[in-house]
Amino acid sequence: MNKVILMGRLTRDPEVRYTQTTNTLVASFTLAVNRRFVRQGEERQADFINIVAWGKLGEFCSKYYKKGQQVAITGRIQTRNWDDEQGQKHYVTEVVAEEAHFAEGRRDSENTNNFDATFGAMPTANDTNSDFEISSGDDLPF
After folding, report:
1. Going by CATH, does the domain composed of 4-119 fall within 2.40.50.140?
2. Running DSSP on this structure, what letter comes out for residue 120?
3. pLDDT digits over 32-62, tens only?
């Protein structure tokens, strides 16, 4: 099984490009993911993980993710290699995103309900386009 779950902060805004053959959107960005433990007397270490999101998910990431924002990504690890013009072989390991979620509260309240709930957003009580109904809690079974 090849499954990765990461939570970290974007080191830059997502970069968008399109494939030459099918004109498919691809968003690329890097997550700074803190390591779990800190050695005494040292600063916390982080790993910088390259993320690639394709199609609608890439569009979502490019539209709503910004540098410094904390996000959670679920996906799979992929490695690839290529030869450059000088014949030098290059290798890259990256995570191909399958799900993307916000991992912190919204900073500015003006962006309420402006994103697609498919990629991790929860509906709010005043969301008229949602398939979910938010109840007062009186009829909940717990």
Report:
1. yes
2. S
3. 999 988 888 888 899 999 999 999 999 999 9
Task: Count the residues in the chain.
Answer: 142
Residue with the two structure tokens 């919204």:
106
Residue 63's φ and ψ, nearest 5 degrees, are: -85, -40
Under 8 Å CB-to-CB from 106, ≥6 apart: which residues? Answer: 112
Note whether 67 and 46 are within 8 A (CB): no
Alpha carbons within 13 A on the beta-carbon side of 129: 8
Beta bridge partners of 41: none
Q: How far is Cα 55 from Cα 53, in angstroms, rounded to an integer?
A: 7
pLDDT digits (tens, 9 = 90+) for 124-136: 444 444 444 444 4
Whole-angstrom Cα distance, residue 116 to residue 98? 15
- Distance between CA atoms of residues 4 and 6, nearest Å: 6
